[in-house]
Design a protein that fits this description.
Layout (H helix, E strand, L loop, with lengths): L1 E6 L9 H4 L13 E7 L2 E5 L11 H4 L1 H7 L9 H7 L7 E5 L5 H4 L9 E5 H8 L4 H6 L10 E5 L4 E3 L2 E3 L10 E5 L8 E6 L4 E4 L19 H10 L3 H17 L2 E4 L4 H5 L11
Length: 278
């Protein structure tokens, strides 16, 4: 199983080291939208979609408030659509999309793959259609779903997986791709686990924000990013509990875990490249 890692949307919020922990305060930090393209036998699977092509020329796609807050810099070359093409595939080759959640910077590219089946937790869909308060209503951009995605919803239960309860079978996909419950950032937030054949990967989405946050010995997150993380959480208790489970999993060394927006996690992986012609 071949896995490509790429950034599908750069964000440059103010705050410097308060956001990314690197030197310098009077500068913009850098955040990414970490996506995966998985070649799984005869299936092509996209994990997360980034901001999407509509973010480039439609101010309502991300919303002015979000765009200003995070310093969103949408460019066509970074979209999932462009990167799928760069790898030598047609958009129609992506038959499945697996999402950690439906926030605007994770699901914004769904419209670029309208033929794909979209795998997501049922609780996340319920929240999209019937948010219980303004905090939940604010985070989802209804315009991003007007094309009518082909949803494949899942209940949050399944067989044990490294201390988590996981759904082991996603419709039409091999058992090496799993949804892992990681509620907190949203009620239906998930991780996406992938068995590459050389070990497990876990895309933990927004269950944490900084690569050192799940350090099993000395957890750390820059102050500004910690404040933002707490402000956008929906259920605090489960978020903290799942972060502790992730630290325990990181301590075991059995799974390579990464978060959605930290560029340090993305840089750990090789840049995506098309397969050599046979």
């Amino acid at each position: 199983m071949r896995v490509h890692h790429f950034n599908a949307g750069t964000m440059r919020p103010l705050g410097g080291r308060l956001i990314d922990g690197r030197p310098g305060l009077l500068r913009r930090a850098e955040l990414v939208c970490h996506c995966l393209l998985i070649e799984a036998g005869g299936e092509l699977v996209l994990v997360e979609t980034g901001m999407g092509t509509r973010a480039i020329d439609r101010p309502d796609w991300l919303g002015k408030s979000f765009t200003r807050l995070v310093g969103a810099r949408p460019r066509f070359a970074e979209t999932a659509l462009a990167q799928v093409k760069r790898l030598g595939f047609a958009p129609e080759d992506v038959r499945h999309i697996v999402l950690t959640h439906l926030d605007l910077d994770h699901a914004g590219g769904l419209v670029d793959f309208p033929h794909a089946e979209v795998h997501v937790y049922a609780e996340e869909l319920r929240t999209l259609h019937a948010p219980i308060d303004r905090a939940e209503e604010w985070r989802y951009r209804k315009v991003q779903f007007e094309h009518g995605p082909q949803w494949i919803p899942y209940a949050e239960h399944g067989e044990p997986w490294f201390g988590f309860e996981a759904v082991r079978e996603l419709k039409g996909l091999p058992p090496e791709i799993l949804l892992v419950p990681l509620a907190g950032h949203t009620r239906g937030h998930a991780g996406v686990a992938v068995d590459t054949g050389d070990g497990w990967l876990l895309h933990a989405g927004d269950s944490y924000f900084h690569h050192r946050e799940i350090d099993p010995v000395a957890p750390y997150i820059p102050w500004g990013l910690k404040f933002f993380e707490s402000k956008v959480q929906i259920v605090r208790g489960p978020r903290l509990e799942n972060q502790q489970r992730l630290r325990e999993l990181a301590r075991s060394g059995e799974v390579d875990i990464f978060t959605a927006h930290d560029p340090v996690d993305l840089w750990r992986f090789p840049a995506p490249s098309a397969a050599a012609p046979s």
